[in-house]
Amino acid sequence: MSREVKYIAVLIAVLFTFGCPYTCKVNAQAGGGNTWEFLNLTSSARVASLGGKNISLHDGDLNMVFHNPALLDSTMHNHLVLNYVNYFAGINYGYASWAWHHGRLGSFAAGVHYINYGKFIAADPMGHITGDFTASENSLNISWSVALDTLFSFGATVKGISSSFEQYSSLGLAMDAGINYYNPSRLLSASLVMKNLGTQITSWYRDGEKEPLPFELQLGITKQLAHAPFRFSLLYQHLLDFGLDGKDTPGNRTGRENPSLSQKLENTGSELMRHLVAGVEFIPVQSFSLYTGYNALRRHELKIAERTSTVGFSWGFGIQVTKFRISFGQARYHLAGSSNHFSVSTDLSSFYSSRNQLPGY
Q: Is the pTM of this model over 0.90?
């Protein structure tokens, strides 16, 4: 057995061993069956443009560490990213991160992920207004990554989570872990990621039950063409929940007790497609890129049968302006509207000379 195959086999065994005790308690992974679903919201304009999820893009973008800590490497040393999302109904959220590399210890990154639900009117049971209150959730992320050899890297992120909704609050701890295979000669990258393995430390109220986190396994691949300015990404989400409803029995949800073979095949094909997130990048020059993506699950859950429109599709662009990379992305969730994503990234080292840099890097 080759060394590469051994690495993948060991990681899969670890992810399933530690993940199963949590996932076996979950009734549903999609559709609000867990607490802290905000952990799955992407802030990056680029990733939002590519369908909302991507774990295999390996090109020095610090925003990708939020989705897969194994993508963190030495090329991101002293990089800074700032993201802001104008969401729905007055909700806004964002993510900021800074990275550094420290020789044999590997690469590190610190990030803050927040969501602000806005201000609400407080009233008593009789409807008398008593004031107002706010609601917000935050996650402090510490990531680490190390190269296993010239092709494979491993990374992990520890998340400290806090939420506050009027008089109710909760604290928790979660972890992401992933492995990435990157072969620059073949312009190929592939990743396997475990996300949001953790627990509530304190429940929402005294003696309350602790709710499950949105645990998930994802598998992704990215391929860039050698003689054309295109890069393609494909991600398979919710690996442990085939039907996306907490049941892992495929092809048996037709509304009938004894579905026919053709109905089972049709359902199975539909369920397979719902796991897919696809994205395409057009890179005519290094300083400018166009992005587009498709999220099949989002389209299936949020479309209106009479008018499907572009629900589930997304688009965006990135442009280099002097020392800054500025990106915009728009994701179509529903006929009622879209989310707008803004990202700015830069290499802080470019603002001062090499003699002012810290030694040992």
A: no
